[in-house]
């Protein structure tokens, strides 16, 4: 599509359609599949947090801190997501810079419109979902983040939009609904014929830029390169005083945990890939381990009772809808309902990000999850595959996932969910609560999966 599809920054964009992407509609050959140009499986740093943290420690970008049960109110906060190229933290860790005082994690008195007491001072430094750095201007912080993606969907415009939505989501997780600036990172695939590469690149850029404009910001520069795989991402930045952002470390026992998007996108995207490549039956009939190859439930007929192709395609549409929806409204409402912190759910899954959030609270707390809202059929598929994606365990990766928000009461959480649904047209769920503990993410014994 040659025309801009820019829409407002609330809810699912109006241009979104459940229809199959038609490559010839934008000048690509019939049967063109953008996802075929990415080695989709295994590209993320899933399960590599400790290795990454060790490397960061070796070069002096991260130091260990005491367990959360001994964290003092002046400790800095941190949380993480998998494919970030900003430095990421793991449980009970925080970053310290080795030299520059402008980027150290020293506590700083909030200025101007921040009328809070000393224990509400803002912290700068590497970590959290974003880098938060004190500028040379008194009381002003620079907040920035970066991320990039390989193709997850077939429409290059939609892929550009999703990439931008995910980059901005890190700012939204701090309650920052407005970004001052975006830079674009773009890799054009050398594996494509030049005419195809030009078309795909044009639409990736347009989708990214339209999403930025829908979110009230703009792309002012970036970097491009030729690359084996197509990739799209960016750097989001804003300047803010301390009262404009909500540090993800203020949770207390009694807080409710809200999730603003359903889980299961990783499973849905993979099912779609299997349907497209003709490996749907083979994938669903393969047991998780070779020694189970004679298991009775591995016939094609049994596999089809787990999930029909029609249900698989419907799940993929739901995943696309979620990935395209900005978390901007959710960020703005964090202030209205007194949120005590948040993170966005991406590559480490809902439980992984809960663990990071729990470990970095000022008070020693656990985050207990009693419900998991999941795209319908995705848990059944993962169960059949013996937990291949670890969805029911809470570790399945998400892309452009929802915000995980700590709200001060049941009433505040219910009101937050109602207003978010009224504005964005999509539900949110209360999925757990904060209790006294030692910085862990815990699944309740009576965990309930809510099929969406």
What is the element layout, followed by pairings?
Blueprint: H1 49-58, E1 63-64, E2 93-94, E3 107-108, E4 122-123, E5 131-134, E6 140-149, H2 156-172, E7 181-189, H3 194-214, E8 219-227, E9 231-241, E10 256-259, H4 265-277, H5 280-285, H6 300-306, H7 309-324, H8 328-336, E11 341-344, H9 349-359, E12 365-374, H10 378-384, E13 403-407, H11 410-424, E14 429-436, E15 441-451
Parallel strand pairs: 7-8, 12-15
Antiparallel strand pairs: 1-2, 3-4, 5-6, 6-9, 7-9, 10-13, 10-14, 11-13, 12-14
Brief rundown of the structure:
The chain has helices spanning 49-58, 156-172, 194-214, 265-277, 280-285, 300-306, 309-324, 328-336, 349-359, 378-384, 410-424; strands at residues 63-64, 93-94, 107-108, 122-123, 131-134, 140-149, 181-189, 219-227, 231-241, 256-259, 341-344, 365-374, 403-407, 429-436, 441-451. The protein is of the alpha+beta class.
Give the overall pLDDT as a whole number: 81
Shape by Cα distribution: globular
Main β-sheet description: 6 strands, mixed
Spatial extent as radius of gyration: 22 Å
Number of continuous helical runs: 11
N-to-C order of helices and strands: HEEEEEEHEHEEEHHHHHEHEHEHEE
Terminus-to-terminus distance: 31 Å
How do the strands line up in the largest sheet? Answer: 11-13-10-14-12-15
Q: Helix coverage percent of residues?
A: 25-40%
| Poorly predicted runs of 5 or more residues | 40-47, 64-127, 288-296, 298-304
SSE-based structural type: alpha+beta
Tell me what portion of residues adopts beta-strand conformation.
15-25%
Total count of strands: 15
